[in-house]
From TrEMBL:
HAMAP family: Sirtuin_ClassU. It comes from Treponema bryantii. This is NAD-dependent protein deacetylase. NCBIfam families: PRK00481.1-1. Its EC number is 2.3.1.286. Residues 1-247 form the Deacetylase sirtuin-type domain.
Length: 247
C-alpha cells in the first residue's frame, strides 16, 4: 500500500471527531476466521448441504442435528483472538474519536478487543437462549453439547432446545440494533467501511444513512461504493489500521 494513502487516512482520522466503523467478515479473517464468499470461504467448502441452506431458520427446525454439526465445526472457532484492526478500533473509541462499531460479524472479537459500543447486526455466537424459558447461556453450552447423547444443546433449567442468538437466513434483524446503528451512522462525520463487499442486505443498506464528510473504504476487493469514497485502500484492514496512530 502506498505511504500517500496512509498519510491521507491519518489526516482524515486526526480531523474527525465522530467516526463510525462499519465492518464485515474481512475484519476477522486476519484472526483466522474464514469469510463466506472468497475462494476459501464457507460458501465454497464441500458439505452435505449448501451452507446457505444450513444456516437458515427452516433448516434449523427441520434438521437440527445437522445444523449444530455444521455450526460447531464452522461457526464456533476456538482460541481465536482479536487482530490489529479490532484493537485499533477499540483504541480510537477509548480516545473519544470513534462513536460506534457496526458489524456484520458474529464472533464477538470487537468486544474482546475492548470496544464498548458495538451494534451486532447479525447477533453473536457468544449468546444463546432457550426457546422455551428464554434463559441465556454462553457458547460453551453449544460446544459441550457435542458430548451429549443427541448432540443438541438443552437448557439445564427446563430442558428446552437452545438456539444461538444469531440472525439466520429467513429471520429479520433486531430492530433495536438497527435503530442504534442508524443513529450512529447519521451522527458520524467519517464512516470507515472495512472488510465487507457490501452485498449483504439489509445490512449494507445502512450506509445510505451516512451524510458526513469522509467515506473511507478498506477492503481487499472493490465494492459498489468505491466510486463514492474519499479514500479507497485495497489491502488487508489490519495491516492498514496498524499503521495509524491515535492522537
Amino acid at each position: 500500500m502506498s505511504t500517500t494513502d496512509i498519510f491521507i487516512l491519518q489526516q482524515i482520522i486526526d480531523k474527525s471527531k465522530k467516526i463510525v466503523f462499519f465492518g464485515g467478515a474481512g475484519v476477522s479473517t486476519e484472526s483466522g476466521i474464514p469469510d463466506f464468499r472468497s475462494v476459501d470461504g464457507l460458501y465454497n467448502q464441500q458439505w452435505k448441504y449448501p451452507p446457505e441452506q444450513i444456516i437458515s431458520r427452516s433448516f434449523f427446525y427441520q434438521n437440527t442435528p445437522e445444523f449444530y454439526r455444521f455450526y460447531r465445526a464452522k461457526l464456533l472457532p476456538q482460541g481465536i483472538k482479536p487482530n490489529a484492526a479490532h484493537y485499533k478500533l477499540a483504541e480510537l473509541e477509548a480516545a473519544g474519536k470513534l462513536l460506534a462499531v457496526v458489524t456484520q460479524n458474529i464472533d464477538g472479537l470487537h468486544q474482546l478487543a475492548g470496544s464498548k459500543t458495538v451494534y451486532e447486526l447479525h447477533g453473536s455466537t457468544l449468546r444463546n437462549y432457550c426457546l422455551d424459558c428464554h434463559a441465556f447461556y454462553d457458547e460453551k453450552i453449544i460446544i459441550e453439547s457435542e458430548n451429549t447423547p443427541d448432540k443438541l444443546p438443552h437448557c439445564p433449567k427446563c430442558g428446552g432446545l437452545i438456539k444461538p442468538d444469531v440472525v439466520l437466513y429467513e429471520e429479520g434483524l433486531d430492530q433495536r440494533v438497527i435503530e442504534g446503528a442508524v443513529k450512529a451512522i447519521k451522527a458520524a462525520d467519517t464512516l470507515i467501511i472495512g472488510g465487507t463487499s457490501l452485498t449483504v442486505y439489509p445490512a449494507a443498506g445502512l450506509i445510505d444513512y451516512f451524510h458526513g464528510d469522509n467515506l473511507i473504504l478498506l477492503n481487499k476487493s472493490s465494492t459498489p461504493q468505491d466510486r463514492m469514497a474519499n479514500l479507497v485502500i485495497h489491502e488487508p484492514i489490519g495491516e492498514v489500521l496498524s499503521q495509524i496512530s491515535v492522537n
